[in-house]
Write a structure and sequence with these properties.
368 residues; alpha/beta; TIM Barrel; two-stranded antiparallel sheet
Length: 368
């Protein structure tokens, strides 16, 4: 990929060519530590410090938290000007998996350190599926709206946004039904289909509602974690359950719903874990996904250590975000040579911007 300008417009154009037009083998996301303030999980609003997010905090400060998040992303945008990479700061709301489920149930949530959990299941009998609907008046939806209004008020051009870090229909169904759903897949598959279809409907409705209410979400570039396109249509999806079930079960209960979200809500950024590295081919065959993202799990295989022709073939269908520091590779040149046969999103980190740029240049040399 040529024209390595550092301005956000040049970066966005390169990302469009990579993600939308299929140009290039690498999309490069860089970062460096020297001189950078440590981003904190604490929420500093009007002199208050909350060690842990809470619903009370969101009730009082969702708008302010949106401003704070936009200002931090703007700082990151300025930091990126020192790098020759392709990344753009991006954000999708993620107050934890419990709060995401509550977007659709209005249920109570327990917040813990870096996430949140639902306090109870919603679908105790299959009749409860009929009660599921997306309610725009749900208080959890209002927290999202207030956050985005704050974010919009402090928005800097070049930041990418996506309405919410949604749970895949199967992941949301797991929350609503509990782990019983894994037994239901065998004993009552038609009911699981009903539930996951309802979850798909609600996700599509929620994404449309948030975009309709927040002009920024239908005007700004869209994306997350450094990846972005100029079109405001990327939907971020947490697809972890595919890593816990067989390929066949995933193709039955997960894939059709992701395909539908891709058709009706927007291109899907599909996140899962290296616990599910064996699902790389199956996930790559889903229609409507724009990136397959792997987050590394401790004691699981590292993508850079298991690259083979299956991975290359899968990456040529849909780019794979390796989400591991390239400096961890035992033989970086061998890894880059293999990756250059496919299409991968890679992460380059250094202590200084110069150190990071040297690594970025090394990766770009494999584009030729």
């Amino acid at each position: 990929m040529s024209e390595n300008g550092r301005g956000w417009q040049a970066r966005l154009a390169r990302q469009d060519r990579y993600l939308k037009e299929g140009e290039g083998h690498f999309l490069i996301l860089g970062g460096y530590s020297e001189g950078q303030p440590e981003q904190t999980r604490k929420h500093h609003i009007e002199g208050q410090v909350d060690e842990r997010l809470s619903e009370e905090f969101l009730q009082a400060h969702a708008y302010d938290l949106g401003i704070q998040t936009a200002l931090w992303a703007t700082h990151q945008l300025a930091v990126s000007e020192k790098l020759d990479d392709d990344g753009l700061p991006g954000h999708a709301i993620d107050f934890g998996v419990g709060s995401t489920a509550s977007l659709f149930t209005g249920g109570e949530v327990f917040f813990h350190d870096y996430t949140s959990y639902s306090l109870d299941t919603f679908v105790k009998t299959w009749d409860d599926v009929e009660k599921l609907k997306f309610d725009p008046d749900n208080r959890w939806v209002d927290y999202d709206l207030q956050f985005w209004r704050g974010f919009s008020s402090a928005y800097t051009p070049g930041l990418a946004v996506s309405p919410h870090f949604f749970r895949s229909p199967l992941d949301l169904a797991n929350d609503l039904r509990g782990n019983q759903i894994f037994i239901d897949m065998y004993d009552e598959p038609d009911q699981v289909d009903r539930l996951t279809t309802a979850c798909t409907n609600m996700t599509i409705e929620a994404a449309a509602f948030l975009r309709n209410e927040i002009p920024l979400l239908r005007e700004a570039p869209s994306g997350i974690w450094g990846m972005a396109t100029s079109s405001p249509d990327i939907v971020v999806i947490n697809g972890d359950p595919v890593d816990l079930i067989s390929v066949e079960m995933g193709e039955r209960f997960n894939h059709p719903h992701i395909d539908r979200i891709g058709r009706e809500a927007g291109l899907v950024f599909f996140h899962h874990h290296t616990l599910g590295v064996s699902r790389v081919t199956s996930v790559s065959k889903m229609k409507g996904i724009i990136v397959q993202n792997f987050i590394y799990d401790q004691k699981c295989p590292k993508v850079m250590e298991i690259l083979d022709d299956e991975w290359i073939e899968a990456s040529n269908r849909v780019p794979i975000d390796v989400c591991q520091d390239l400096t961890e590779a035992k033989d970086l040149d061998a890894v880059l040579a293999k990756m250059a046969q496919g299409r991968f999103i890679v992460h380059c980190y250094g202590k200084t911007s110069d150190e990071c740029n040297e690594l970025i240049a090394r990766v770009r040399s494999y584009e030729n």
